[in-house]
């Protein structure tokens, strides 16, 4: 079960993606619907103590975002908008301080086909982020 800090980070990330793309962002498995939509998940997390205080911990989470568009250009434009909206962000989410957001990777995923169809129903781009926050 995610901690309060993880919930705040995921809420912040979801809001930033929805703001950037204008479409819903779903954790893990998105709607079975026509694109565009965005799915996301936390892929990993590590903690390190800081020099400033024995009580503060810098937590870094790895997040993947899958952006689905009806066309290749739409998927890539949405991915660019998300990267622009989150890259190098510093600020707060609730009572957490977000220290940094780095885009660590971005790549095409396999197109999505319906059974028996030759034309894809969606094109996808995967973005990997590293988000560090203070707890």
What's the helix count?
2
Average pLDDT, rounded to a whole number, is 85
Counting DSSP E segments of at least 2 residues, the number of strands comes to 6
- Main sheet summary: 6 strands, mixed
In whole angstroms, the N-to-C terminal distance is 17 Å
Task: Give the topology string: H per helix, E per strand.
Answer: HEEEHEEE
Q: Strand pairing plus helix content: what structural class?
A: alpha+beta
Strand content: 35-45%
Tertiary shape: elongated
State the strand order across the main sheet.
1-2-3-6-5-4
Work out the radius of gyration: 16 Å
* Helix content class: 10-25%
Spans where pLDDT lies below 50 across 5 or more residues: none
Description:
- With 135 residues, the protein is α+β, with helices and mostly antiparallel strands.
- It has helices spanning 4-21, 72-86, and strands at residues 25-27, 37-49, 57-69, 91-93, 96-108, 123-134.
- It starts with a helix and ends with a strand.
Could you provide a short overview of the structure?
The protein has 135 residues and is α+β, with helices and mostly antiparallel strands. It has helices spanning 4-21, 72-86, and strands spanning 25-27, 37-49, 57-69, 91-93, 96-108, 123-134.
Q: What characteristics describe this protein?
A:
single chain; six-stranded mixed β-sheet; alpha+beta; 2 helices; elongated; 6 strands; 135 residues; 24% helix
Secondary structure: elements and pairs:
Layout: H1 4-21, E1 25-27, E2 37-49, E3 57-69, H2 72-86, E4 91-93, E5 96-108, E6 123-134
Parallel strand pairs: 1-2
Antiparallel strand pairs: 2-3, 3-6, 4-5, 5-6
């Amino acid at each position: 079960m995610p901690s309060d800090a993880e919930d705040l980070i995921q809420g912040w990330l979801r809001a930033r993606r929805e703001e950037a793309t204008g479409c819903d962002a779903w954790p893990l498995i998105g709607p079975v619907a026509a694109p565009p939509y965005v799915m996301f998940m936390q892929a990993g997390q590590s903690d390190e103590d800081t020099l400033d205080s024995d009580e503060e911990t810098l937590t870094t989470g790895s997040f993947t975002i899958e952006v689905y568009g009806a066309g290749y250009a739409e998927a890539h434009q949405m991915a660019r908008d998300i990267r622009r909206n989150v890259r190098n962000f510093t600020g707060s989410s609730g009572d957490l301080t977000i220290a940094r957001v780095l885009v660590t990777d971005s790549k095409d995923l396999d197109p999505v086909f319906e059974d028996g169809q030759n034309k894809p129903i969606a094109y996808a781009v995967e973005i990997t982020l590293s988000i560090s926050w203070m707890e």
